[in-house]
Amino acid sequence: MHPRRDAMFAGCVAIAPILIGVFPFGVIAGVAAVEAGLETIQAIAVSPIVFAGAAQLAAMDLIGQDAAPVVIVLTALVINSRMAMYSAALAPGFRGLGAVRTAVGAYLLTDQAFVVSIRRSTTSGGDLDVRFAYYLGAAISLWIVWQVATVIGVVVGNGVPPEWSLDFAVPLVFVALLFPALKDRGTRIAAAVAAVAASSFTGIPLHLGLLAAATLGITVGVAAERGR
Amino acid sequence: MTAYSPTLIWVLIGVIGLGTWLIRVSFLAFLGRVERVPDWGTRILRLIPAAVLAAIAAPALTHATGSFDLLTGRFAAGVVAALVAWKTGNVIATLTAGMGALWLAQALV
User: Fold this and answer.
1) Which of A66, A107, A217 sits opposite B51 (nearest CB)?
2) Same domain for A138 and A88?
3) CA A210, CA A199: separation in Å to the nearest integer?
4) Could you give the maximum distance between any two Cα atoms of chain B, in Å?
């Protein structure tokens, strides 16, 4: 009997179908880093250092346009702020992990690892080590796929001629991620307002229009949900 | 292509990486002191992905030439991709449809 090893393997199996969709996303993240003008070593280093797809893509997009550094950092962190929710939701089930495993577990936290692990980590009782092993199995699988995919993207991005317009894959990935995020009236209103506002605010310097549009969308979305 | 120096880009990557880790570790590390995200926080956080993704994607499609223009291959391809994303929710299908539509538009014009 190897309960920890079995749980780790079960975590890998549980996240496997999701990884098929993560792979092309990772390739585009690698392409985006090259398109933005990063050196090869930097383009590869972004993935292990940041390890957050949408934020990486947004940051690369903004770096490529020479947006203000503050806007680049804020945009990436605002996109990742949702992870505070995951952190809070996982915390009760992972109480007592210790500093090192908490630090490593946090580093590996993604939308996908969260979705796969949340039920197991909070509802099933049992051994903390086994629950954490399951989480690690899922989270590390995604980490490996993400690193491999972005390296491939960096290689591809360096080799593909500009006529292929591969840079267009970046907004396409945002479109692909946007629609699953439109879960109800509030999210749809927030997205619609933010989209119209962002296209209207392109004259605002330093790409501050992006953050202004997102803030407006969120504000209107919250107000619309309150009004019901 | 960026005009920023490699050093500045390293700093940006490092700050984003550190900030992201702090967000991830937040409640995992400090549970007990802060028991959970307050309701107003949850209401805001859950709208952020939709709003930010829309705000990034929209100008790339409506301002493909640098100024507002909806008669571009990129806007048309974006609409095609949006329909596919809406109907399938599939990243690969969305990328394939969007890139295919753009290449078709470029071949025709």
Assistant:
1) A217
2) yes
3) 9
4) 62
CA-based nearest distance A158→chain B, Å: 13
Residues B1 and A64 sit within 8 Å (Cβ to Cβ)? yes
Mean pLDDT, rounded, for A11-37? 92
Concatenating the DSSP letter of every residue in chain B gives ---S-HHHHHHHHHHHHHHHHHHHHHHHHHTTTS-S--HHHHHHHTTHHHHHHHHHHHHHHHTTTSS--SSSHHHHHHHHHHHHHHHH--HHHHHHHHHHHHHHHHHH-
What percent of chain B shows pLDDT beyond 70?
95
What ipTM was assigned to the predicted interfaces of this complex? Answer: 0.89
Residue A126 to chain B, least CA–CA distance (Å)? 19
**Nearest by CB: B26 against A61, A84, A95:** A84
A175, B86 Cβ separation under 8 angstroms: no
Rg of chain B, C-alpha, whole Å? 20
Identify the CA nearest to A56 among candidates A79, A87, A81, A40.
A79
- Closest Cα partner for A218 from B70, B96, B36, B45? B45
Contact between A102 and B17 using a beta-carbon 8 Å cutoff: no
Q: What is the pTM of this model?
A: 0.86
Structural domain span for residue A219? 182-228
Number of residues written out for chain B: 109
A142 and A100 co-located in one domain: yes
Same domain, A86 and A197: no
Suggest the residue from A172, A178, A210 to mutate for an interface test with chain B (most B CBs closer than 10 A). A172
| A69 or A123, greater pLDDT | A69
In whole angstroms, give the CA distance from residue B97 to residue B90. Answer: 11
Residue type, A200: S
User: Chains A and B: how many Cβ contacts under 8 Å?
Assistant: 277
Interchain CB contact of A136 with B (< 8 Å): no
pLDDT digit string, tens, across residues B56-88: 899 999 999 889 999 999 999 999 999 999 999
Q: Per the structure, how many domains does chain A have?
A: 2
